[in-house]
Amino acid sequence: QVQLVESGGGLVQPGGSLRLSCAASGNILSIGTMGWYRQVPGKQRELVAVITSGGSTNHADSMKGRVTISRDNAKNTVYLQMNSLNVEDTAAYYCNMRVYTWNRAGDYWGQGTQVTVSS
């Protein structure tokens, strides 16, 4: 059983910063691409940023220059540093990982962490 647990969300003022973390646990052999997505009620979940096992990254155009995604393979953890946040960044943020166990490869999601940008 693989579980992803996110942390770091909360309330922040416009222009502020937050760092999200997502740690995977379970019988993990390796992890491929890790990513962060976000969703607001009534809208589809959208990409924020992804990072491959080799360290290549990609970001949504709306987030470029404001976010940094990184990973610690030894800790099975992915991070999202977000700066210059604005009210449009308010959403539930979800991490996603491609996890390889001894008998399968699967895409796993965290439970979500709320980020609210408000003055």
Q: How would you describe what is shown here?
A:
With 119 residues, this protein is mainly β. It is 0% helix and 56% strand. The chain contains no helices and eleven strands. The strands form two sheets. Strands 2, 4, 5, 6, 9, 10 and 11 form a seven-stranded mixed beta sheet that branches. It has a four-stranded antiparallel beta sheet with strand order 1-3-8-7, with no helix packed on it. A hairpin with a 5-residue loop joins strand 5 (46-51) and strand 6. It is globular, with a radius of gyration of 14 Å. It starts with a strand and ends with a strand. The mean pLDDT is 96.
> Could you give the count of β-strands?
11
Order of helices and strands: EEEEEEEEEEE
Question: What structural class do helix, strand and pairing data support?
Answer: mainly beta
Range of helix content: under 10%
N- to C-terminal separation? Answer: 40 Å
Q: Mean pLDDT, nearest integer?
A: 96
If helices are DSSP runs of H or I spanning 4 or more residues, what is the number of helices?
Answer: 0
Shape: globular
